[in-house]
Amino acid sequence: xxxxxxxxxxxxxxxAAVLKRYKQMxxxxxxxxxxxxxxxxxxDQYIDKSQFSNALQxxxxxxxxxxxxxxxxxKKAQIFLxxxxxxxxxxxxxxxxELEQTNPDIMxxxxxxxxxxxxxxxxxxYFRKAEQNSxxxxxxxxxxxxxxxxxxxxxxxxxxYLKKALDENPEHxxxxxxxxxxxxxxGNDPMAIEYYNKYLDIDPFSESAWxxxxxxxxxxxxxxxxxxxxxxxxxxxxxxxxxxFNKANALSAIxxxxxxxxxxxxxxxxxxxxxxxxxxxxxxxxxxxxxENAGTYYDKTVTMEPNCSDGWxxxxxxxxxSDKPGEAVPLLxxxxxxxxxxxxxWNALGKAYAAxxxxxxxxxxxxxxxxxDDEIAEYWLSYADLMFNKSEYEEAIKILEEAENSExxxxxxxxxxxxxxIFLDNFELAREKLTLALTEDYPAHVDFMENxxxxxxxxxxxxxxxxxxxxxxxxxxx
Length: 478
Description:
Elements: H1 2-28, H2 36-48, H3 52-65, H4 70-82, H5 86-99, H6 104-116, H7 120-132, H8 138-151, H9 155-168, H10 173-185, H11 189-202, H12 207-219, H13 223-236, H14 241-253, H15 257-270, H16 275-287, H17 291-304, H18 309-321, H19 325-338, H20 343-355, H21 359-372, H22 377-389, H23 393-404, H24 411-423, H25 427-440, H26 445-451, H27 459-467
């Protein structure tokens, strides 16, 4: 092992000297001889850095010194492919095919060319030839075919070749990574997780693999696992901006808002002009009922991006909750100018108009809300309350009946129906709706008591609530 390591170090120094000598030759504009292996190494150094014009120059010089070298011509075709100069690559590779009809590298690259051109049948034929004639480094060839399919978005086809490559070499790290990537793309998250973990068993310091794992867990709403994955990525690279941002999102999703704010601030140190980060910080403060800081960050958001509808909406909500409906209205209207299809914003506008006693405007806003989204109970309740408070009792009852027969039907609708019916002295229907509400969601009777506190003076109401107290803190859907 020590001998092999010494040999590797020697070869590394030797090739470094070759590259230095080659660059000096170009600088001094003179000609110096290099063997084919040297030129191949020089071209690869440039390819690895995506310096394709320099790599191509090295191949041209190599062909002047070694005009019949198949290796250099294959390298030149590889460079054309890397530059997506497919026609030039095909032209050169077809010439090479006449000379070496069983060379798997030539067959594989021709297949890749036809794949990129959308000629799938030709591509498949050449890939089959490449596979049939491959006896050494089969895993690498199969892997490259898989990559060809990834480049065209044919992830199912890529999976087939990547699995074959893995069979040839179970510890081929790039194969494991790209298998995980392909499974992620085809929506098979469990398999993607499995292969990312296999890859990380070999290379635990791959921040991109940890990050991708976090993305999958985030999509599966397994936020704790997502946060752990992002933390591993950040332990490797503390300035991995996307991992910081996504970790903040995950923390917010599990309502750890203070930690989320701190994490967004870490992100803003890297990207201080991020509109999204400012907006999400504002949202976190809003969830913490810290409306002063929420308002400050919503204002920063719309200052940075005047067309951010969510920023204007958030600023309007802050004004509405702060009992400033007059100031809320223009902010909400600005949001709706940008995004007129936001039902939540229309509902907030309806509440602002209702607070300003602008009945007609409020009604129109609620109607627009339900036109956009009739599956949210709160929207029906807001509209029904508006009508009830204007003594439009029959209309209010009708609205709740319509809600009861929609996708928005829930205990909250039935509690409100019970309250309205009690107010109208229709105790029979009130008892029916209150019983239904209590069996559906007993804990929600607290909201009913807050909305209609005087009804607790009615013995039958308190007795009925007590009757269903055995449901305790559980929500039961009948």
